[in-house]
Design a protein that fits this description.
extended, single chain, 0% strand
Length: 51
């Protein structure tokens, strides 16, 4: 599991958002941290291919 470290600026930005939006962001980042090792990245395509 990956841990998330919040900076003061990030927390301040999160507090300025609508509550529903900030809750969705925190939930998604928490899910990502818990599942980080199981995620298989897909290669980029188009103009970003090979980057």
């Amino acid at each position: 599991m990956v841990s998330i470290e919040w900076t003061k600026d990030a927390l301040a930005d999160l507090e300025r958002l609508d509550r529903n939006v900030s809750v969705r962001i925190v939930k998604k980042l928490s899910w990502f941290a818990e599942n980080f090792n199981n995620i298989i990245p897909e290669p980029l395509s188009g103009m970003l291919k090979g980057t």
